[in-house]
Design brief:
Homodimer. The protein is an alpha+beta fold. The protein has 3 domains: about 140 residues, D-tyrosyl-trna(Tyr) Deacylase, Chain: A; about 290 residues, BirA Bifunctional Protein, domain 2; about 120 residues, Anticodon-binding domain (Rossmann fold), CATH 3.40.50.800. It is about 30% helix and about 25% strand. The chain has 17 helices and 28 strands. The strands form 6 sheets. The protein has a 10-stranded mixed β-sheet with strand order 8-7-18-17-19-20-23-16-15-11. Strands 1, 2, 3, 4, 5 and 6 form a 6-stranded mixed β-sheet that branches. The chain has a 5-stranded mixed β-sheet with strand order 25-24-26-27-28, sandwiched between helices. Strand 2, helix 1 and strand 3 form a beta-alpha-beta unit. The radius of gyration is 28 Å and the shape is globular.
């Protein structure tokens, strides 16, 4: 079940027209209004049919909790199918809505809008931090008997215990400032920290569904990087040559950075036995939805991370204290998570994604905290080189209260490192396998946040997977494990870059990708056919991804198209350049809208400039034909 809870000054509706599944209603039910109400927009889903009473109970508990927090005495129960694409049968939907109405009526003034009717409605949202909240309700497994409300048993989606715990976990939200002070997140003054304010609102409200496509969706198509794949499951994308090039460069860069800190690259399977005793326990501890498939009469699941593959490998290894911290990394192409359909959009949230997954075995908690700090700094450096700076992301640090009380100085140091306030989520009880976790979150043009880099201190899985190391005295000890993704999902890095540049353009800047990631780094434009030989000579002198626009178009049109493709260096060659052995270069990074910066230089000088800008970063050649006339159009 999906809930959207709006604390409103008023909510009113009027029935307009029935649908084929409309419930029969009396005239008095055809319009309604409530003042000072908590409006519960509800979409009942197929999974709720397996345990209707459980779904009602959990929904009522959640609605009561929010109503108490916002001090609402009136509740409007409003069927709203648009919250889900996996709706229950109409019969079950009406049964659940009526059940919620009846259960709430003892403590609140309750009205219910009719099911299956087109309705006009007006609502006035109060606009405080708790006035807009969304919740996903997953009922407990049924007893196996048929549900009397819907008359049929529906196979329930496999949902981990950790995911269920996440929806019910009591979170204490704070803002931690670099001076070590914890502030209530709902009353903190976000002046000068507008982006953090958007992130805090996103986290607390849990409004994950996307109402419209963010800017990067149009950009990923126009730049011919990626697109939706209608022949696959939602959240599985196709990548054109330019997008594949960018992904490959990012993958290579992150692997090089993990290699520098001593991580050994490994490769593990994509699917695992769901009934393997160790893996089955881990499935219930990871807050993600899995894809399950059948193979040779065994129930398998597609990996949602590289954890289990690496942990099973660790279990079989002989590890000495001299090997610690022991680090292994895999670039998972792909990891699979069955994210909810309403949350899937562009490259922001996918069901199949590429994740650099590094795990570190540490001798003890002291060693784990030391590594956590080093990997925190590594993640900052990795994102910086990718093109996402400290000012571009917000930090979330999540931990148990006990861990915080024992490590306040260390956690404060994390805020000092980024030199800005960070969001803190604290729990009284540990719900998951980790006691400390951070994420760097990018907030896009629609004020939706997406996690990039993360590190977690895992205190469960060494025991679960029976992973040991031999200490100096010959005894076998359990290590503490760190999970680290230095960049987060590779696709999400591209999303972050595109969204960042879209917002930059909206503010009047000139958007572009980092030079080392640009599919074409230099484009040469010969003014006429007679300049083609010189254009080819220039291209041959440049040690970078350079192409030539040899099409029969005007120079003006070629320049405009190069601008729409965000080409960093556009070189125009004509009579003067041929005569002088120079090139006329438009430098995108230094230009303003309608004010291009043009510089005359030699090809050797341009080559040196590009080499300096891309020093130390991975390189691959052109992914398409050098001559634009020979290239196909992907869109």
């Amino acid at each position: 079940m999906q809930l959207l809870l709006i604390h409103s000054d008023y909510i009113e509706y009027e029935v307009k027209k029935s649908t084929p599944v409309a419930e029969k209603i009396e005239d008095s039910f055809k319009q309604g209004r409530l003042e000072e109400a908590l409006t519960a927009f509800i979409a009942v889903e197929k999974v709720d049919e397996a345990n209707v009473e459980g779904a009602i109970s959990k929904a009522v508990e959640e609605i009561k909790s929010v109503a108490t927090q916002v001090k609402a005495e009136n509740i409007m129960v409003y069927p709203y199918a648009h919250l889900s694409s996996d709706l229950s049968s109409p019969k079950a939907g009406v049964a659940v809505l009526k059940g919620i109405e009846d259960a709430l009526s003892g403590d609140f003034t309750v009205k219910r809008a009719p099911f299956g009717w087109y309705k006009a409605f007006k609502i006035s949202c109060k606009g405080h931090p708790l006035s807009e909240l969304s919740r996903s309700i997953v009922p407990d497994e049924s007893t196996g008997t048929e549900s009397s409300a819907c008359g049929e048993v529906v196979k329930e989606e496999v949902v981990s215990e950790a995911l269920k715990a996440e929806s019910t976990a009591k979170s204490y939200w704070h803002v931690l400032t670099p001076d070590g002070e914890l502030h209530d997140a709902t009353t903190f003054d976000f002046t000068g920290h507008d982006n953090l304010g958007k992130f805090v609102d996103y986290e607390i409200s849990k409004k994950r569904a996307v109402e419209k496509a963010p800017p990067h969706v149009e950009l990923m198509r126009r730049l011919e990087l990626a697109d939706y794949e209608p022949g696959s499951d939602s959240g599985n994308m196709r990548y054109y040559p330019k997008g594949r090039l960018m992904k490959s460069l990012l993958e290579n860069y992150v692997l090089e950075e993990t290699s520098k800190v001593g991580a050994m690259e490994v490769e593990t399977p994509l699917m695992y036995d769901m009934n393997h005793p160790t893996l089955k326990k881990y499935l219930d501890r990871f807050p993600a939805r899995q894809y399950s498939i059948e193979s040779d009469k065994r129930q398998m699941f597609l990996r949602f991370a590289a954890c289990f593959g690496q942990f099973l490998m660790n279990h079989d290894m002989t590890i000495s204290y001299k090997n610690l911290p022991l680090k292994m990394v895999e670039m998972t192409r792909y990891s699979f998570r069955k994210e909810q359909r309403g949350e899937l959009v562009g490259l922001r949230r996918l069901r199949a994604f590429t994740m650099p997954d590094m795990h570190s075995l540490c001798a003890d908690m002291e060693g784990a905290i030391d590594q956590f700090g080093k990997q925190y700094n590594m993640c900052i450096a990795v994102l910086d080189k990718i093109g996402i700076k400290v000012d571009d992301f917000e930090v979330a640090i999540r931990f148990t209260r006990d861990f915080y009380n024992e490590n306040k100085d260390f956690i404060t140091h994390l805020a000092k490192t980024v030199d800005k306030p960070v969001l803190v989520e604290m729990w009284d009880t540990r719900f998951f396998y980790f006691v400390l976790k951070f994420e760097f979150n990018f907030v896009d043009a629609l004020a939706k946040a997406s996690a990039l880099s993360t590190v977690q201190i895992d205190v469960e899985n060494a025991e679960r997977y029976d992973i040991n190391y031999i200490d100096s005295d010959g005894s076998a000890n359990r290590p503490v494990i760190l999970h680290c993704s230095p960049s987060g999902a590779i696709e999400r890095c591209i999303y972050g870059l595109l969204e960042k540049e879209a917002m930059k353009a909206e503010e009047g800047g000139v958007p572009m990708l980092p030079l080392w990631l640009s599919p074409t780094q230099v484009r040469v434009l010969p003014i006429a056919e007679k300049h083609m030989d010189y254009a080819m000579q220039v291209a041959d002198k440049l040690n970078c991804r350079v192409d030539i626009d040899d099409r029969e178009d005007t120079v003006g049109k070629k320049i405009r198209e190069a601008g729409r493709e965000w080409i960093p260096y556009v070189v125009v060659v004509g009579d003067s350049e041929v005569e002088n052995g120079t090139v006329n270069v438009t430098i995108r990074a230094e230009s303003e809208p309608k004010k291009p910066v043009k510089v005359e230089m030699t090809p050797e000088e341009l080559n040196a400039r590009i080499a300096a800008e891309t020093e130390g970063m991975p390189y691959k050649g052109l992914c398409l034909a050098k001559m634009l006339s020979q290239r196909p159009k992907f869109l």
